[in-house]
Every structure is written in structure tokens, then in C-alpha cells.
Amino acid sequence: MNLAEFFQVAPVPPELLAPSLWLIIALPLLGAFICGVFGRMLGRANVHLIACSAVAGAFVLSVLAFWATSHTGPGTAEGTRRLLAFYRNPFGIEADFVRYALAYDYGTWFAAGDFRVNFGLAVDHLSGILLLVITGVGFLIHLYSTSYMEHDDGYWRYFAYLNLFVAAMLTLVLADNLVLLFVGWEGVGMASYLLIGFWYTDPAKAWAGRKAFVTNRIGDFAFLIGTFLLVLLVSAFTRQANSADYANAGSSGPRYTSSLQEKGPLTFKGLEKLAEGMVDTGTDKVDLTTPIEAGPLEGYTFGGVMTAAMLLFLLGAAGKSAQLPLYVWLPDAMAGPTPVSALIHAATMVTAGVYLFSRMASLLVLSPTAMATVAIIGALTSLLAALIAFAQDDIKKVLAYSTVSQLGIMFMGVGMGIFWAAVLHLVTHAFFKACLFLGAGSVMHGNGDETDIKKLGGLRHEMKWTWGTFLVATLAITGIIPLSGFFSKDAIFHGVHHNHLHGLEWVSGALYYVGLLIAACTAFYMTRLYLLTFEGPRSKEARVAHAHESAWQMTLPLVVLAVLSVLSLVYALPLMRSSGSGQPQPVFENFLSPVFGAMSRIANAAKTAELDTSVPSIVDYVKAWVVALSGGVGAAFLYLRFFPARVGQPVPAFARAVRRTAQNKFYVDELYELVIIRPVKFMSFILFRVVDALLIDTVAVRGTAWVTARVGSALRYVQTGDAQAYAAVMAIALLGGVAYALIQVMQ
Amino acid sequence: MVPITYYLLLAAALFCMGMFGVLVRRNALVVFMCVELMLNAANLTFLAFARMHGDNTGHVSAFFVIAVAAAEAAIGLAIVIAVFRSRGSVLVEDIRTMKH
Q: Does the structure show a pLDDT above 50 at A676?
């Protein structure tokens, strides 16, 4: 048995593994429960053991599941081996199998009328990769945390939250429908809120948690509206489509509608079929320009609704993935413990937006407008964040803005249709940014929690492991050949350059140069960060005279992540051959082609985007390399020669004004304060004073009590307690009654 | 034979006198006597009508009223004595516990 065969035969066969997929989520959830409820009684060592082993168990299961997605049958000869890891797509015709994937449906979660949501889990190559990243990097961060959080009183609470986060993130990627994905989406948001505000006794940190929570809610709201639009779109499609539409989608009307009843309208495979059905081939009834005939969306075209839904999802993804205009929470989120920053704000949760769009790639490519918006938003976010990162002095803030910037690059890739490269950058970024954040945590740990890079310096000789790994990760993010960051980032920029959106051709050309500028900026601020922290003499204002290296629990994850951020470059090399054209193809593109196959088919047929599959040439590589290098060298030159930028030393005048603006983050927070928060606060104040305080409190609540009390005090005088007075009243009433009766009789 | 109107007018006059006494007299014992007066006015109407119709139902009713009035007087006097013992007064305007 050679190596390739070994990897093609999973130790646990897929049919056995598919029904057990829920265990991957359940393990960390159980860990969170045990740590959260019994953590205080269990003691440190046991909590560490439970939390780490829960994630380790999930990692092992993820590896098995991932392995099983490429499981082949027992035959050994080339022609007789058969792929066994597939499941029948209920929306398609009999022979339509989803290959390289496992899925299991645990039945109805809830149903209302003809709307139905199933608890279905699926692993294909895309979610498989993310499973490995989440549980793998997640485990390393758990391990790191055992040392980092050793002296914290709330360690058990911390590990419970961390496990909860992992469980929610796994739900997000395992879900086979949008609603279940939303559960994970909200779950990571909640865990993130809990972890950012972990040290809740400090008001600033609690405030940062709330900011993240509120900002995310804005995006989640848009996500929900987008989801509802898709539900309406599916029902409009089933009403209007004819058999040619279903033939386009490789399905038939009865099969599609019966699958809708069985699986609900929001499963990804169903949405993919919807996208295929809308592709224009002439005889079909529904395409992108068809107006919807009935229902709440009457009069709008299918393509228009699709664009609107995608833009709403973009706003949702902007909240979670820190894009314009909702990126402001991420830099503040650094208030949480450093491993949290590494886990949530670099490796997993913030990439959920990229994952969402990759999952829905087949819908996204139907709308060039939405694609262009995604790409432009990504580019603007990336550039803005990179410029802000120039002047930040807090080591974690620089990394946070760099994360925002890198996410922007991924969004550029997603928007321009080069999904595999965006996912690859997601993976490599998870490795090197987690490494950078954990390195920063290690630096803080060894320097008395000092985060101001101007007050560090010279750590190269004192923290050798941290230095080495930080250097590797810095080179990777900078884009120095031959580290992984270079390849993944360059693959995105190459795709941005060569893909064209129909009707919006200028976007790709413009964004390519923005991309090069971003690359140079990234190199500049990362080099600055590295130089100020690790090189040069030790700052005079350092908190401790000599830094100490951290424990092995902290350095081991650093080393593993540094090694991974080098090794993952293999995925970008054109070592495979495309099954269609026979052209050389990057490993990762080949690997993800079962997932993104439908996307390319739809884009080609709908003529919304022209997707280029060429491999970057040496010239492209050299260009990108020169750009990155020039940024880094520029930074090195400036910071080593002109302004070593220590506290107390003068900075050249030309830099001061720019620096002040950048240091204040271009006053974006202040702008939001002025444009949104102040008016909303003012409106709330008016509402509070007029509606709540005046109308409800004074008139309605206190007014009722006032009237009752006044009436009572007036009637008080009637109740004398004198039996004769009462009898007199009765007698007078009787007299009145008699008089009335007499008058009646007389008449 | 005296027409029934005279009886009724006498009964009405007795009743009004009784009611007047109940409403204005201060001494609880006098109030009780006035109540008896009103009851007797009612008895008088019963008897007058019984005689007019020539059957005994009215007589029976009058006996019942007398019996009930005797019982009521016994209880009422007991209450008046109890109040006098605890408060030292039998004036109705001094007894205002119904206020609470």
C-alpha cells in the first residue's frame, strides 16, 4: 500500500462515521458543561484536563471525518477503486451524488406550515478543512491557555467559555442549512461576548464586550432578513419554474418539491440547485431577469432579490468578520485574554463570514453587483485597517488591525470569485496570526503585561523561542517567499487581477493595485512591530529588567503554529492536474473543486463572471515579492535609521500629523459616535422623557394611582360609621323609590 | 265596619313615627322601642288585610313577626347591655365601629 492509498482508505468507514458527526459538537459542549458547572469543585488540573481533552477528542473525530471524505472502496487496482464517501443529494436526480462528503440528517428540528428546518450535519472538503483548523488550532490555544491563565481565579469559567466557543464554531461549519449555521453564528457571538468581557470587573473590558455584542447584532439582523428573502425566493421559484428550469438544475419539479418538504428550503444543496435553475439557457421560464409573479416579492426580479439577499448577508458577514462598516468591535475586543484574541479574533470566528460566502458561492456568483460590493468593501476595509495599524503602539492592537486587514483580503478574494484562495488564506492566516497573537501573549507574559511596543525591545536574546516563531509568522504574513502567507495572499491577488465581473470589469483592475498597496502596508507595519519588539536595545522604560521565556505549554503551540505556517505553502503549489483541462492546478484548488464545482458551472453558464484558472507565473510572484519586500525594507530603513521611535525621542515633523490621525484610528469611532450613536441616543432620550417618563410613568401609572387615591379621600367623608346616618340614607332612597312608583302609578 | 283605609293610614302613621324615632333618637333603648313600633305597624297591616280577605294567613304572619321581634329584642338588648358595660354609654352616636 503506497501513501496515496493509505490516505484514501479511512480507518473508520464513512457510513459508520456519518451518524456520529454530532459527537464532534457534543464533546466540547459536554466539556463546557462540566467545566462551567463543576469547575470550581474540580480544581485547576482537572479543568485543564477536561477542557483540553474535549477539544482533542473533537480534533481526532474531525480528522477521522475529514479522512473519510476521501474514502475509497477496497479494490486495489486503479480502475476498480470506487469513492464511497458520498451522499445522495435529495434535490437532484437519481444519479446526482455529492462526492467527497459525508452528511447525516437527524430529522426535523422544527416546522411551521411548509417551512421546515432539519438538524442536518455535513462534512465536505471545505467544512472538513475548517473542522481541522478549529479543533487543531483550538487545541493548541487550549494548551497555551493552561499556562497563560494559570494564576487567574476564573480559570474554570474561562475554559467553559472556550469550550462553548469551540462547540458553537463547530456547529457553524458542520451545519448543512442556513438556520443551523445561524445557531453557530449566534453561539460564537455569545461566547465571544463572554470572553471579551471575561475580566468583567474592569469597566473598559466589559464595555468592549458589549460593543462587540451590539455591533454583531446589527449584522445578525441583516443575516436574518437575507435568510427570509431566500425562503421567499425558493417558494417563488417553485411556483414559477417550468421543467426546463429543473432540467438546468439537474432535477425535476416533483423531486425538488418533495425534497423541499423533506429537507426545508434553506439547505445549502437546495439553494445550490436553485442557483443552477436560474441560469439562463433559453427555453426555461425563470432566469435572473424574470419578475416574480406573486407573493410579497411581487414585481421584483429574481436576480434583484438575489442581489439584495447577498448584500444583506454581506452586512451580516461584515459584523462577524469585522468589515466596513462594522469592523470597530474587533480592535476593542483585544480587551479579552490573549489566547481568546488568537482563537476568536484571528483563527476562527472572524473567518465565519468568509466561510459563509464560500458555502453560498453558487448564489453569490449569480450577482456581479454583490460580488463587486463584497470585493470593494473588503479592499477598503483592508486598506483602512492597514493604515490604522501603521501608528498603533499596542502590540495587540497592531495585530488586531492586521487581522481586519487580512480578512479584507479574504473578502476581496471571495468577491472576485477566487474562493479557494480565500479559504487557503483563511487557513494560513489562522496559523500565522494565531502564532503572532500567542507570541504577543508570550511577550506580555514575560514582560509584566507590557503591551506598548515602544517600551519593549531587545527581546530577541531573552525570549528565543518566542522570537523565532514570531519572526517566522511575521515573514509569513508579510509575504516573504517561501512562506505560506505569500502564496495564499498572492493567489488571491492573482485571481482578483484575472477574474472579471460582467458589467463591472474595472473592479478587478483597480482592486489589484489596491491589493499591492495593502501588501506593502502589511509588510511595513509588521516589520515595524517586529523591529520595535524584538530588535534594538531594551527600552529604558521597560517594566521588568529582564524578560523570561514562557513555559513549554506556551512555546510548544508557538512552534507547531510556526511550522504549520511554513508547511501549508504546499497547498498553493500547482502540483495537481485539473480533471477537466489537464492544466496544472494548485493543490488546494483541486482539493476544493468538489465544493466549488457548481459555482464555476453557474458562473460560466450565467455569464456573470469570467473566472480565470491560470496559475500565477514567475513574473507575478516576483512582482508581489518585490512589493512586500519594499514595504518591509522601507519600514526597517525608517525605523532603524530615522526614528527609532522610542518614548521621549523626537519624531520628524512630517510624520507627526499623519501619525496622530492614524493613531486615533482616523476618528472612525468618533464619526460613528457623531453620526449614529449621538442621534440614536438623542432619540432615545426624547422617547425616554416624553413617552416613558411622561406618558407611561406619570400619566398612565402614577395617574391611575392618583385618581384612585383622590376619589377614596373624597368618599372617606361618607363613611361615618353612624348607623343612623346609614339608615337615613336608606330611608331617603326608599322614599325616592316610593315617590317614583307613585308617579308611575299616577300616570 | 271600619274601612281598611283607616287601618292602613294608622299603620303608616305608626311606621313613620317608628322610623322617625330610629333615625333621630340617641338612646339605643328608645331606638329599639321604635323598631318595635315599626314592626307593630307591619303587624297591623297584616291583620287588616287578613280580616279584609277573611283568611288566617295574615294572623299567622303576625304571630311569626311577634316571635321574631321577641327574639330580636332579646339579642338586641343583650348587645346594648354588653356595649354599655364596655363603653359606659348607650348613645348610638358614640358607637361608630362600622367606620373601620
A: yes
